[in-house]
Amino acid sequence: MKTKSTNINKGAAAFTILFAGLFFLFMARFLYIQVTGTVEGKELPVMAEEKYSRTQTVDADRGNILDRNGIPIAKDTPAYTIEAILSPKASKDSPKDKPRHVVDPEQTAEKLAPILGMEYEDLYQLFVKRIEEDRYQIELGSKGRGLSYQKMQEISELKLPGITFKEETIRYYPNGMFATHVIGFARKGEDGKVKGLQGLEKTLDKYLVEENGQITKKSDRNGISLLFQEDEVIQPKNGANVYLTIDQKIQAFLEDSMSKVMKEYEPENIVGIVADPKTGAILAMSSRPTYNPNDIPSGAYMLNDAIGLQYEPGSTMKIFTLATAIEEGVFNPNETYKSGSYRVLDRTIRDHFRGGWGTISYLEGFQRSSNVAMAKLVMEKMNGDDRLLNYLQAFGFGQPTEIDLTGEASGHILYNWPIEKVTTSFGQGSTVTPIQQIQAATAIANGGKMMKPFIVDKIEDPTTKELIENRKPTVVGTPISEQTAKQVMDILETVVSSEKGTGKPYRIEGYKIAGKTGTAQIPDGKGGWLNGHGENVFSFLGMAPKDNPELIVYISVTRPKLTLHESGSQPVSAIFNSVVKNSLQYLNIKPTISDEEVKQVQKKKQVGFKLDSYEGRNVATVTEELTQKGANVIVIGDGTKIVDQAPYANAQVLSGERVLLRTDGKHAMPDITTWSLRDVMKLSDLFGLNVNTVGHGYVKKQNIAANSSLKDGDQLVIELAVPNSPEEEIVEQADSDSNTEEPLD
Fold first, then answer.
1. What SUPFAM superfamilies does the record tag this protein with (predicted)?
2. Is the peptide bond before 647 cis (omega within 30 degrees of 0)?
3. 257, 286, 315, 569: which one is catalytic?
4. Total domain count, the chain
5. Structural domain includes residue 745
6. Are residues 84 and 170 located together in one domain of the fold?
7. Closest by alpha carbon to 140, among 160, 157, 150?
8. Is 315 an annotated catalytic residue?
9. What is the pTM of this model?
């Protein structure tokens, strides 16, 4: 018994020691927690807050980008991502007639594909492959993301088993392909935040970025909100709203006309800028190629050519050479000179119409875009000194305008050698950017005051409407006087209105347009220039209305695909005329030409008529009849009866247009010099000629001499030139056909 009692005592002592140890350990732990206020490195108040608090994020919106009238160009919008639940496990607890997974992949793909713009087979195979991989749930790729509410509703109404949606906020561009290289785009990153990646979305990200808020609610252990406990609220902060100087209507005019020309002529590049000459505000800016920021294809062209493209501008540079000469008092519009060619040491400068126009006035030389006139102004009237260089620098060439966009280039003025001084005067050798030409042109259209171009108007707090930034027009120089600017504008108007001017295609009924054409050569990368019809940069820099300019518009089209009878002015004028006419009407700018002037213009317009069939009729009778209607009749053959005609019966022709009549008897080749290619093709149709052309424009030379025998199927070779339209402006070495420009000692 004693042994048993001893064991009991020992056990009791052991339990006492164990419990005493646990008690002291508990007390030590309690005292530690009491003193430090932490458990396993976590503070007790924080743990309690986490246990009895529920926090909910309140989404904020990224700032809007709007046009000058408050129309959204970029904004946040609700969107939906479609998801497909593939696993039968999802339908485990649901009624058999209401499955929660994709039961019939074939039918689901068939109904979804046309709505999502996907191929049925691709979507069906996606379902099949992922089901084989035992995937529970999938998204349907890029076509299934960013769906609008309307499209989500359309899909929901199909009641397809297993098809669900996830709501999110995306950056949306309501106008699609609209000032894309200006606006850029923003996308949601891996952290869930939207970030600007291109254009103004990137450069103004610090203003546009939003800050999400949150609401914290107090609750008991069961998650029920506690009475008399106020929620802790951190208000969301939306991004600032950015207002641009762009006008949505004018931008739309530009985009639409550029898209039409892009489709019809398939050029390599198009640039268009519309600006207010009084302020420098950019009303529209776009370029091609471009992309839709809502759905960006791989390899999309991201550069903003309106500010970043450096190229030889061609004859639009003559505007500023003319302004320099007038300001320096060396331009006499009535003084004459011999056009055609001009020697600079061992180099020969030629006009685009190589033979020239004989002895003409400097005014006519400018209207015809004569290179020789510019060369003589620089080398003889200004003694080949640095005056032109100084003025070009004053006009802002050779340095960025510092417009509020990234990626702007500086261009480079070549002015070291005599030949460079001459070529720079008419837009070769030196490089500029489109936006530099717009800035420089504001001095011409704005009484000598040159305005800095800007595209951001103001930045505004979306809640308080307080201005964070407010951009104002800035005069960046006065390179010429008001009197000089007015005289230049007067001369630029004659480039368009005069029958000798290269700007005739840019006439707009009811308005006086001032401007200058440009046709620039393109380097071939081998030290020479691209050759061939359309292998140029064709451009026009114009102001409207001439007497009180509200718009400056620059359009350039690079390497359009032209037919043999088309000139580079056609795609350019298709954009310029459409944008200017629509913009002036939209801005309620009334026509500036009087009713009497309009009547005079209308009187000069050609009147058309329809041709009859003249086959078998007497030549003399038909010739007299057509002549009375205003046709220019060309009779080919010594017979008395007509056997064929061009154009053919029922064709509509204009007064003054050539109508060719083939008679019986022997046929002689007509003198076709000065004929258009279109008229030559009429001759080809009548005789089945094999026509080969050199150059473009109007016939200058023909291999079959006039009055020599003409037979069906003859080989006809013609050399073409354009005396009254902008052409390649050629700098040639003496006694050489090379266009290579090399500095001279």
1. beta-lactamase/transpeptidase-like, Penicillin binding protein dimerisation domain, Penicillin-binding protein 2x (pbp-2x), c-terminal domain
2. yes
3. 315
4. 4
5. no
6. yes
7. 160
8. yes
9. 0.74
